[in-house]
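Weekend entry, working from home. Most of the wet-lab plans are on hold until the incubator is repaired, so I used the time to fold the two sequences that have been sitting in the queue since the last round of cloning. Logging both here for the record. First:
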Amino acid sequence: MTFDSVLHAMQQTLAGPLANPHMAQFGPEAVLNDDLHIDSVVLINLLVHLETDHGVAIPERDFRKEDFVTVADLIHVLLASPSAAVATEPEAAPANQDPSEITVHCFVSCLCAAIRRHEGLDFRPFYFGTWDSDFAVTAQQHLAYHSAEMTQDHYIGWINRLYAIDVSPWYDNTQSKADNLARFETLLHSTSGDRQLVVMLDMFHLPERDTKYNQDPFPHFVIVEPTADPEVWHMNDPDYRWRGDLPRAAILNAMAQPSVAGGYILDSTRARAPEPQDLLAYFNATFRPDANPLTDALRRIITYHGHTERPLALPELEIALRELPVLSLRKYAYEHAFAFFWRALGLSFAAFDAHCDQVEALCEGFRRLHFQAAKLAHTRDHAQLPDLIAALDALDRLEFTIKTALHAQFQTWCRTTQVAASISPNRSPETRAMLKGEPA
């Protein structure tokens, strides 16, 4: 394969089966996301078509978004050109480096933004259990990261218990959308200090924001604040680590979509550090040592769509797993947990980095699994199904390995904290009694 032949195959695929509406921008220097709106899901399907329809060999390697930006970059990666080689990462990092600036869960990230407003408060333990947070499987056996039945009550209750941060809904589901938006505008201009407004909006209808994920609909939680200009609002998107000013009308339009409804007031005026016994309870309440809900759900979905008695279901497997990239990102929450114990226990960076490598391997494994599933759906070749299940089983084993290592660090932290609590005059008898309990 030559550069020009792969370029031509990409053009044919995007213009043909993928029906990309932005082909006027296509060319070697076109930016994949900004110009062609190719997100991770479209990229997977592009690679599947290139391999199965055009004979382009897809390298056995991890595809990281940092490796390519333009069409030409991607072609060089596919051709394994020397210019596409990835730089070797250093084996160590400075002790003060923050290794956990990662996208995980939009609502949790908004709550963590309230925690991070206060110097000295560590937000990392609030990500405990987010790796197994709720998702839905539809009646059609499609994976969904959001549904109208989901609530945020779990996180609202725990952030109050752990950090004394109050979270109350401002959105009233018994009122009309127009009434709720009017109430939001009133609150926006009366909220100040450590009170913030969280809104749910549909990011697909906010093209001013580039999220690298062109999902439609795209329900997402962000924080909105006023500016000196009444027609311009400031949006803080903690999960994507983006903040900037956007037109008031654009934000209201994204909030007004029928695909979204919800919002909260965050009040961190009384924010404080969590008590050790509450962190212990939170970890135990969210840690599932004997189950990996996402891989369990994927196994059921793949088995359903791959059953020979449902030949028409197999092509739908690609659609059924479309939202897997959003859910697999939640596995990066393990890094937040390892970072907390790394700092609290004074562990070596090398040990922490090794755990992060396993987490990265898990997340990359889900990306490869998504590619395999899309390929199976496209070729309709049931002979590929055992390999797909085997890959899923391998991810299951890897995640259990990660959980075992994390639980061991949690147990060490419990023992260490128990000793510290027993000699601290500020600890109550109730605290000491709680810390004597064995972690789950």
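Second, folded right after the first finished:
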Amino acid sequence: MINAALLGNPNCGKTTLFNALTGSTAYTGNWPGVTVEKREGVYKNKKKGSEEIKITDLPGIYSLSPYSPEEVISRNFILHEKPDVVISVIDATNLERNLYMTTQLLEMDVPVVVALNMIDAVAENDQRIDARELEKALGVKVVSISALRNKGLDELMEAVSKAKERKGTSFLPFKETLEKSKKIYEDNHIDSPLFHAVKALEKDELEEKENKVAYNEVNDLVKDDKVDYESSIADERYKFLSPLVNKVIEGKKTRNESEKLTLSDKIDKVMTNKWAALPIMIVILFAIFHIVFAGDLFYMHAMGLDLGEGYLGYIKFNIGGEEVRPFAGLFYDDAGIASIGEFLHRLAGDQETGILGCIALGIKQGLISAGASEWVIGLIYDGVLGGVCAVLGFVPQIMLLFAFFSLLEDSGYMARIAFVLDRLLRRFGVSGRAFLPMIMGFGCGVPAMMNTRTLSSDQERTKTIRVIPFFTCGAKAEFLVIIAAAIAAAGGLDAGLFTFMLYLLGVVIALVSVIVMTKTSQREKVPPFIMELPAYHLPSPKALALHVYDKGKHFVIKAFTIIFLSTVIIWVLSNFSWKWEMVEPNQSILHDLGVFIAPIFTPLGFGSAQTGGYSWIFSVASIQGIVAKENVTSTVESLASGLGLSSFEDIAAASGITKGGLVGFALFNMLTIPCFASVATAKGELKDHKTFVFTVLFWLGLSYIMGIVGYISVDYVWTLGITLPLLILGGVGLYFYDRYKTKKEAMAA
């Protein structure tokens, strides 16, 4: 098997290429000793007898200098793991900037193949890149591809399989110095001596640490030279690249033709406009959440459209003399026309007509027919299937949300969101770079927190990690949906609108939290934000499907591991007494434990004072949610089944919980300590124990306070007359405290 590595700048299409080459063979882990994501997969050549190629997707970086953990990982992998070939992925629309790192790579003793990606976008700009001329200049094979369109991939992998061993080459002008420096490393028996010699001349910190003897010899060699090699090397690379790029690009526009904007430029005049960009972003995100979660699509029912049974609802079958309408309510109910996401949820998870509900019922009938005992039937049907199916029923809905976010990312718009928000976020105390891990929090907090390693300062990383859980992940979407449905059933807001408002509220709370931290405990000057914006393009269906599959896979795996175990424990505790006798749920161990902790949640509107005999259910679900957010849904659904109720809506109605109590329940579970996996990741990323402990307390304290505020603000509107002035006074106090600290720091300086 050939071992190949993918190396490239961020946004060069490297991940799209990796997905296109590896498909379902890809798997994800972490690099040893660090929390940076590691992706590997296998390319299976279609030609008979061809050797398989194992592909490692290295982190997206701009340089092989060790300024970040990602750069260290990529550099060490090539130098120490010695892949058979490195594929240098180049964004052909930004040739000069991307080739910079390639010139560094060519200094290593490693076979290299250059992949000119996005070549179709170059053609759309009425340009053409002479790959043969570029190949001649670089001295390695160059292949033009479009990972998005699956063009040139077979030719690329054919070149990879034929790549030959090579020695490092350099295009830097000071040949004599390089040769002498290289000789020093050769005498010290160090592989890739040319690369290391250049790094020694650049006064590379990692080079000094790893090869101190040779490093010192090189610097002694050049100590009398009147050349600043560290800055000169970067300048010389661009002096080599600039005329080369002009030579190989045909039909390149001149500055006098700058008025001939590309399609991406024309779109950006609107999408990144100073005034229009933010409203457009909000509309796009609202439309996404509405299509995924709304119970009345685009408010058509509210506007008077009545579809009766709706679409396929009239289809009926006669089974055993009984009329059955399997599709009734899937497309339309009293609330209105189901959105795409809501329809998929009903189709998958509805207890009466849903596929999973039918399967679970069939298993129950099979157990009854087999003569299984009551407790076995209860454990499997009410416990395991009740909890797991409740989670899996949301999988199509959540995957649809993932699909929309992947569409935004792969099309290039997500990078624009970061650019647009940089102007806003900078006022709050972080750069636009921090928004990338924040927006990843909508998918999962674990990779989002890992991604904070790209941030430039410890303060910015700490602030970002603390607010990532406020960007509602897919797991939280489940219980927000069921709470929204309960509020809608009680005559409140539209479920889709309520869900969107909670998502938006999470973002607002995150930004306010960042402001407070920036003005108090995490004071710093916001670092500059530089980012390349890829050209707009339509994602390939294959790449989109792979992204959704990869994210959905982790969601399902969690359902069959953590959720499975949790539901079993919940069922046992809710069906057995302290004497281990099978009893009703309201006489169980779990009931007693829930009743014991329920008073804690009374100020939030879902304690014993507001929900009576059902307070223990809300309490237990909230505690279970700290293990995994999916547990909120699975716990409620499992306990509801044991009490003879069918859903969270039934429990909410039976308990008499108010709208304010539901809001308090939603806010606490949305903002509190995230799942165990995210907590473990935060501990690894923050490193400092005190900072980690304060972060956990911050999550717990803020969620409790916001739960109280949400409860009293909804049920006791008059309290806003007290809350709002207090918030204003807090803001004024924070302003004067910031001025005082700024003045004190200036005097100290």
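Plan for Monday: verify the second prediction. Residues 254-259 have pLDDT under 50 and may be disordered.
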